[in-house]
Each structure stands twice: as C-alpha cells, then as structure tokens.
Specification:
Chain lengths: 360, 324, 338
C-alpha cells in the first residue's frame, strides 16, 4: 500500500542577504537538503533534531506554508507542490497544522468560537448555527467548556490556548496533522495533558501525525517511527524502539546520551557522550558527513570527504553513517561514564573543525 | 458568509455530541470561572477608564467638541457675535478685562473673547479632524501598498515618505497660499494633511509587517484562507491599533500646526476667529490686556494636551494582551 | 557554624494595582559549600523570584519582603546596607541568567564584560583584569581565549555566550553561584556541555550552586539536593535521590508521573496533573495544590500545610506525608516503577 505522505528529495534553500544590486553576493542556506521519508496512514512519524536542523522547515514545506526548492511531496498519490487554487484548498483541508506558540498562533482579536469556526467559514461549511454547534462540541472534545466560545485567547493560559489550536485543526476532519513543537512551550504538567489529548484524538479520529519536536522523551512517547535530523539531513530513520534502544548513528546516540533522565541514580549510571563544539553554521556546512566535525567516532578520511547516504541497517531502520555497521556504538565503546574522556581515538588533528574548539 | 451551507465534514459519523463524556477526561477547573462573554471593546473601555489622565483628556475633548458643535445655537445670542463689531458701543467696550458682561473680556474691536474662543475651537477641531483624515487616507494606502507589495514599491514609497518628512510645512503652506491664493482653512488642511502622511504610512507598514509574522497568519494560510481574508480579518485589525493612537495624537499636533500657521497669517484669516490668529492680534497688548493672549494660549495648550493624553491612554487600553 | 546560605520562610509579595501577587510565599532551605541545590517548579512557581530575592535584585516597590530572612554565613542579607549588599553581589554571590543574548551587553567586548566585576570588587587594574578575563575564558573552554576576548557578544554562538556568562560569574570566585535556567535556551547537546562545565567548576572551586530549572532531568543530573516549588511555596525539600525516588508530596508525584521518558517505554498513557496552576493573586484557601490534588480532603481545602521534616533531611508540605498508608498509595510505591 502506498504511504499517505511520501516525501522524496525535499530540498529548501533560503537566500540570505537582501541585495537586489549585489545579488551575486547573497548566500544560500540549505535548510533542508535532500530529505526523503514516508508517513503511513494512522501512524505518527517524529522529526527530531536540534534548532536549525530543518525539521520545522520540512513541516512547513509539506503544508505549503513554504515553497520547496526541489523534491517531491505526494499526498495520497497527488503531487502537492503543483496544487493550485481550489485543489490546494482541498489539500489544506486534509492536512492541518498545529503551531508551537499558543500565544502567537491565535488571533488575539477573535473569540475562541470565531477562531475555531474560521476553517469552516473558509471552506464554506455549515450555517452559522451549525458552525457554532460544531465549535461547542469540539471545545468539549479538547477538554474545554462549551461556554468558552465567546471568550478571547488572552483570558486563558498556554495549555488552554493550545487546546483551542488543536480544536481548530480538527474542525475540518483532516487526515493528517503536522504538529510543530505543539508542547514545547508548555509546563510539564500541562504538556502531559496535551500529549494525552493528542493520543486520544488520534485514536478517535484515525489521524496521522507528523510530529516535529526537539524533546526526545516526548517523541518517544508519542511517535511510532522517528527521523533524526542534523543540519538539514535525516541521519537516522526507524521505528521508535530501534532508534531509541539501538541507535546506529553517532549523532542519535550522542543526542540520547545528552538528554538527562529525571532519576538521579539512573542518570549517574548512564554513559555520557559530550559532543564538542557547536552545530556548524548551515551556510557553510562541513564537507562529507555533516556531523564529522563533532562526531565521537569519525576518524577516517572518508568522513570528511564523502557524504554518507541513508542506508538500511535493519529492516525499516536506516542510517546515514559510513560506519554504522562497522562500529555499532552501543556495543560499549563509549559507555560507562567516560564523560571526561577527551579523545577516545586520537588523530583528530587536521580535521576541518572550523571555529570549533574542544569543549569536553 | 452567505455561502450555500455544505455539510460539515464528519457530521454524520457516529460520533456526535456525546463524545466528551466517552473520553473520560478530567473536568477542567477553569470551567467554573466562566463569565459572560466580554467584548474586546468593552475591555479596552474598562482599561481606559482606569487611566485618570486619559479620562481627563477625553472629557476635555468632549467638552470642546460639544461647545464647537453647538456654538451657533447659543453663542451669538448670549456671548456676542465673534466677528461682527457692535458699532454702537465699539469704543467703550474695546479691551475690557473679564467681567460679568464679558466672561473673558473683549478684544480691541469690542468682540467677546469667550465667543471667539469657542468659534476658534471649532476652527481648530475642524482643521485637526480633516487634516488627520487626509493623512490617514494617504498614509494607509501608501503603508499598505509598501508592506504588501514590498520590493521596489516599498523602496519608492518609503523614500518618498522620507522626502515629505524633510519638508518644512510652513514653507509648504506659503507655497500653497501662493498657488491657491489667500489664506484659508483649506490651505491648512492640505499643508498639514499632505505633509503628515509619512508618519501614518511608516507606522502602518511597520505594524503590518510585524503582524504578518505572527503564527495566526500562517495558521489562516494553512487553513486555505484567501489573501483578502487574511488581510482584512487577521492583519488589519491587529495592525490598526497603533494607528489609532498615532492619529489621536496627530490631531493635537495638527491643531498646534494650525495655530502656528494662523499666527503667521497663512491659516484662518481675520476676522474669522482662530486661536492662532487671536494670539497674533494679542501681540501688541501683552502688558496692557494680557487676557487677550492668555485665553487662546490656554485653549491651545489644554486641547493639544488632551489629545496627547487620550492617545497615550488608548495605547495601553488597546493592547489586547494587557491583563487587567 | 551556620550554613553558607540559609533562607528562612521567605515571602516576597508584589503589590500591584490588581492585588497582591504572592510570588514567593514561604520558602526555606539551607545550602552548604560544595552542594548543588536544584530548584524545580513550573512557570509561576516563584523559583526565579526566589533567586532574584537572594541577590536582592527584585525591584522594591512593587516587590516587598513581607517576612522571612536570607542569611549568608549567618549574616542577614536583608538587614545589610545597600552598599554591603552590592559588595556581596557579583563577588560572593554570582548569578547566571537564562538568556545569554540579553544578559550580555551587546556594545562591549566579551573580555571587558568579564573583567568588569574584577575591577569593581577586587580593584584590579585594567590590564590585570583583562588578563584574568582571558584566563577565565580559557577555564570555561573557549578556544583561543586571548583572541576571542576581543569579540562582541553577537560573534559568539549561544553556547559560547553562556560560557562567557559563566566566566563572568566566576570572575571573583563566588561562594554561591545561582543559575537561573542556564540551559533552557540551549540545544540538548550544548546543554550537556554546560552542565558538564558547571560540574567541573564546582569540583575545582568548591562553590555552592543553586540550579533553577523547570527540567527535572537537568536537576536530577546536577543537583544533590532538590527543592520543589508550587505557587510560591516550597512543597518538598530533600536529597535528590530521596525526592526523585521516594517523593513525599503529591505534587512531586504528579510531576514525575507526567513526564514522558526517553530512556524507557512508558506504556501508553501519561498521568498528568489535572487543571491549571492557580493565579498567584487569588490562591486557593488551604493547600494551594488542593484543587488539583487527587488525594485532597476537606482538611486540605481549609488548612494550609507547612513544610515539615518527615525523614531526616527530607521535608514535605503535605498534611499526609507522615502517613505511611498514604505514601503507599503513591504511584511510585504502587507500581514500583522507579
């Protein structure tokens, strides 16, 4: 069966600098570079990575909030990038978006009722009364009181606003929802409420989620499959279990080890990989494997010379590392609290490290 | 929204009104605090009322407007005509200090100053309103075009705005008087209105650009909203608030400019009453009849101040996000 | 000997036009040299205001310390003169802020900003202070510190800026380092670097650290003592292992239960705390957590509990924390999950 959403070779370049006259001096940032993945009907695919890895840009390209530079986006077999006019509107009905910031994503001059009814108005559904009825129902579905329909966003807390954002995305009974960091602006206890709500809604409405987040724990909780991004590329893609319990890419492994767990005893016992330096400037990405400047295992010329393709390491589990199979990291080389180990392999000299220093 | 109602998607599916209970979600505590639907305008009014200075400004403006509008009904009868000279007693009545007969005194031509002040207010408010109206029309269009089309249009309009900003309005008024002949309130409207639009255009452009960055605009686009809908439903209402403030204050500034032009003889022409003109006439009597100068001066000061205070209060009151 | 820093029933209220905001309403803890105290709580729980109060950086008015005391080495900071407080601040007690972008001055060179406290408190000459600044930059792991000291803040990345902030805080060898969400604005791999750096610094200088964070993982990682805050009050205080593995207060249970984990499968559904945090102007009567507490009784709604020591060094502000049966009902003991 074909996937609900199929993304192939998606690339998005941004031009930086605003000269019309000196336009040849403008730089391009490859925010998303040749990204491919598929989302199956009814599943949740997580896109994780640090800021600037291109995960949000990917989501926005899929929703046509941004126009992709190249690549193919197919939804139910239809080429999304070519849609215009009415057919684009139909597509937007099927694919909704939940935004990160519950303060900026609701128009402060509209009531909850107006905000939620807007998708229905735009697509010409229902009479005024029917729409109001639907809004009230939907408020109840997301756990708010139907009387809130005449209230304004500024009277509510972040969690409650986010519920309205979610309700709005459900009004048209979409097939898929792109969730862009929907819980990262919320407090812990509220975050759990929203995650549960998203879980329930998925079951109830048979939704498919593309879930974009930087929080590894949230992604593990809510996603069936996970794609890890670094500097505009997917470095690892696989089922939740495989990616979290046997990561094959050193970046995934480092990311997991860097995020602390809320249990001091376990946290002390965990292995720690402290990556050196910062994420390189996406305007000047490193040659070869983009991660090689910070990689704890990169030590071969090939890492800085040749870009590793996404290769299958197990069924449904792909990774983009030259040594994914040769050096399964989780096999214990970097484990057992080697937090202060400066240079496990030696021979880092002469690697193109840019302005990065040894921070560990 | 008169579109043919279509069935709301999913309406007929098994799930209907009873869904919330089936999901077993804990009830939210906020539900208890639900009040009656409050309107944004009501909230803004409440906030404005809390600001005493703004209320004072509003009251003063209201008094001025009321006096100016109703002047024809009672001022000539009770206070005396602001223009025509009562020849029978002209000599004896000129330059009278304030008394029961003439509350604010009389001027050189025996005209009642209270009456002239009220008609002067009429001229000032009219100039303020019309000039700001002209500013708004030009400024809104220019600002919207610059923000929406961007690129070369943005550059052209904004550079034009810079040039207009650098143009001294007194000079411009002199040119207008030269071209159109004779001083008249029209010159004043045009001088102030034509030169004042860059401020409006800049503010509107800036606030449109800022509002456009909000995620709710993206959200509307993601829903498939048309460009006009996004502009008029999401961008405009949120971009206009700072303009209301600026326009209110501009009325004060326009009144000041009118007074200055009239003082220099390029605005409202004597014998028609205007505050600037009255000040000009009073120049020669600074020591012998100081009330000639004091009352129009107070009129200008208080009215301009009232508009500025009101604008300042509106700034805080119109901020939706501001909690009470 | 008195503890290095001691806070005793601190209450910092803000008197605003809309009412009294009880931002901090009864916080007590003690901190010894070399210890790391983690302060956790959600937004509005008063953890940042507590930190600012320790530095005497809360603007007064509208803020006012209504009661309580803050003692540094047994001496009350509240009763010190402005001048003495100024001497303490930045010298003996230093602070790191959340946003390194706005807390560094964009028009001064990094080196000069780090040298500033040295010139202020130690009376160092310009040249000495600059040399010390370069040395400090090296200590916090900035490569080529002698050259980078000439940079302006915008030339540093977020992680490097936070390192520079730490260097500035370290300039005078403070005895207490207060870090207010120092890693919240940073990516997780950079966060790990900064936490590692703070651990190193503590091992080297023996200073005490107060780490304020909403992230329980960060606190578990770095703190040896934990103070849990809710609606301006300290609800639980104890050694980190105790608080995380044998929590006494239902709010702490709720927090731990509502967290998804990335190191283990949590099996389906999270157990969030119901409802919303209360408004600090209009706190519920009795225990502030009672409207959201699954175990609340009538007593909880009428009588406010105090922070009471239950086990040695482990205290909780719940009427039932001393009740063994009650604790057995906690999700932690029932499932043996932790």
């Amino acid at each position: 069966m074909a996937a609900l959403l199929q993304v192939e070779g998606l690339t998005k370049h941004f031009r930086v600098g605003q000269g019309v006259i000196l336009s040849h001096m403008n730089k391009t940032v490859k925010a998303v570079d040749d990204v491919s993945f598929a989302v199956e009907q009814g599943e949740t695919l997580g896109l994780v990575g640090e800021s600037g890895c291109g995960k949000s840009t990917t989501g926005r390209c899929i929703n046509r909030l941004l126009e992709a530079t190249s690549g193919k986006i197919e939804f139910e077999g239809v080429d999304v990038r070519r849609l215009r006019g009415k057919r684009l509107r139909v597509y937007r009905r099927d694919v909704q978006f939940i935004f990160q910031d519950p303060y900026a994503s609701l128009n402060p001059r509209m009531t909850f009722g107006e905000i939620m009814a807007e998708p229905l108005v735009i697509h010409g559904f229902g009479t005024r009364r029917e729409r109001e009825q639907r809004c009230k129902e939907m408020l109840a579905v997301v756990g708010l009181s139907p009387e809130h329909i005449h209230r304004y966003p500024h009277e509510f807390s972040g969690g409650q606003r986010q519920r309205v954002g979610i309700a709005r995305s459900l009004m048209l009974r979409p097939k898929m929802i792109v969730c862009d960091e929907p819980v990262s602006a919320l407090d812990v206890s509220i975050q759990a409420q929203i995650i549960n709500l998203l879980d329930e809604l998925q079951k109830e409405f048979g939704l498919t989620y593309l879930f974009i987040a930087h929080d590894l724990a949230v992604v593990r909780h809510i996603c069936d499959r996970v794609a890890v991004m670094y500097l505009g590329k997917i470095v690892e893609l696989g089922g939740r279990q495989e990616v979290y319990s046997s990561p094959h890419h050193p970046y995934t492994e480092s990311l997991l080890s860097a995020a602390p767990v809320p249990d001091p005893q376990k946290q002390r016992a965990r292995s720690r990989i402290i990556l050196r330096g910062d994420v390189p400037d996406p305007m000047y990405p490193p040659t070869g494997c983009r991660f090689h400047t910070r990689c704890p295992i990169a030590r071969f010329p090939i890492c800085s010379e040749e870009e590793p393709p996404l290769r299958s390491v197990a069924s449904g589990h792909e990774t983009a590392c030259h040594f994914a199979k040769a050096f399964p990291i989780s096999a214990g080389r970097m484990t057992s609290g080697d937090a202060h180990q400066q240079d496990p392999f030696g021979g880092f000299d002469g690697r193109p490290g840019g302005n990065l220093g040894d921070f560990s | 929204m008169a579109e043919a109602p279509e069935q709301i998607p999913g309406e007929r599916s098994a799930r209907g009104a009873g869904t919330d209970s089936s999901m077993g979600r804990p009830p939210l505590s906020i539900a208890e605090s639900v009040g009656k639907g409050r309107t944004l305008r009501g909230d803004a009014w409440r906030r404005l009322r809390k600001n005493r200075l703004a209320v004072a400004g509003l009251v003063w403006v209201a008094i001025m407007v009321l006096l100016a509008v109703s002047a024809d009904l009672w001022v000539p009868r009770y206070l005396g005509d602001p223009v025509d000279i009562d020849t029978t007693q002209a000599a004896s009545q000129s330059l009278q200090p304030p008394s029961w007969d003439h509350l604010l005194g009389t001027d050189r031509m025996s005209r009642d100053i209270a009456s002239r002040i009220i008609y002067g207010a009429r001229a000032s408010l009219l100039v303020g309103a019309v000039a700001v109206g002209i500013m708004l029309v030009i400024g809104l269009v220019m600002g919207a075009v610059a923000a929406y089309y961007g690129g070369i249009w943005d550059s052209i309009i904004m550079r034009a705005a810079d040039i207009f900003l650098a143009f001294p309005y007194v000079l411009f008024a002199i040119v207008l008087v030269g071209v159109m002949g004779g001083g008249s309130p029209t010159n004043v409207f045009l001088a102030i209105g034509l030169l004042g639009w860059p401020g409006i255009a800049r503010i509107f452009r800036g606030s449109v650009l800022a509002v456009r960055e909000n995620e709710y605009v993206d959200a509307a686009r993601a829903m498939g909203a048309s460009t006009p809908r996004i502009l008029f439903r999401h961008i405009m209402p949120n971009a206009i608030a700072p303009l209301v403030v600026y326009a209110t204050m501009s009325i004060g500034v326009a009144i000041l400019a009118e007074a200055a032009l009239s003082f220099l003889g390029m605005g409202v022409q004597p014998p028609a009453p205007s505050w600037g003109g009255m000040l000009s006439e009073a120049r020669g009597y600074l020591f012998t009849a100081p009330w000639l100068m004091v009352y129009p001066g107070i009129g200008i000061l208080t009215t301009v101040l009232a508009f500025v205070l009101l604008g300042d209060g509106l700034r805080d009151a119109l901020d939706v996000r501001k909690k009470e | 000997m008195p503890p290095l820093m001691e806070v005793d029933d601190l209450r910092m209220h803000f008197f605003t036009r809309d009412g009294v905001v009880k931002a901090v309403d009864g916080v007590s803890f003690a901190l010894e040299a070399g210890q790391t105290l983690g302060m956790v709580g959600e937004s509005g729980s008063g953890k940042s205001v507590t930190a600012l109060s320790l530095m005497r950086l809360v603007p007064e008015p509208p803020g006012k310390v209504v009661s309580g005391d803050i003692r540094f080495k047994g001496e009350s900071i509240l009763r010190m003169s402005e001048k003495e407080q100024g001497r303490l601040r930045g010298d003996r007690i230093a602070m790191i802020f959340q946003d390194p972008m706005t807390s560094l001055n964009p028009v001064h060179r990094i080196g000069r900003q780090i040298a500033e406290p040295l010139r202020l408190h130690k009376g160092a000459s310009k040249k000495e202070a600059w040399g010390a600044a370069v040395e400090l930059l090296a200590q916090v792991g900035i490569p080529q510190p002698a050259e980078r000291a000439w940079d302006y803040p915008h030339e540093f990345s977020g992680g490097m800026r936070q390192r520079a902030m730490i260097a500035m805080a370290l300039a005078c060898d403070p005895e207490v380092l207060i870090a207010d969400e120092p890693t919240t604005a940073l990516d997780v791999t950079i966060q790990a670097q900064i936490l590692e750096l703070m651990r190193e610094i503590q091992a080297r200088t023996g200073s005490a650290i107060i780490m304020i964070s909403h992230d329980l993982g960060v606190v578990a990682d770095i703190a040896d003592h934990v103070l849990v805050m809710y609606a301006g009050k300290a609800v639980e205080f104890g050694a980190a292992d105790e608080v995380f593995c044998r929590p006494l207060h239902p709010y702490t249970w709720g927090l731990l239960e509502s967290l998804p984990r990335h190191d283990a499968d949590d099996g389906g559904r999270l157990s969030p705390i119901k409802g919303q945090p209360p408004s600090l102007i209009n706190l519920p009567s009795g225990c502030a957590f009672s409207p959201r507490c699954a175990y609340a009784t009538e007593r909880c709604c009428s009588e406010a509990p105090h922070l009471v020591e239950i086990d040695s060094g482990h205290s909780s502000a719940c009427h039932f924390s001393a009740d063994k049966d009650f604790l057995n009902r906690s999700p932690h003991s029932a499932t043996g999950k932790l």
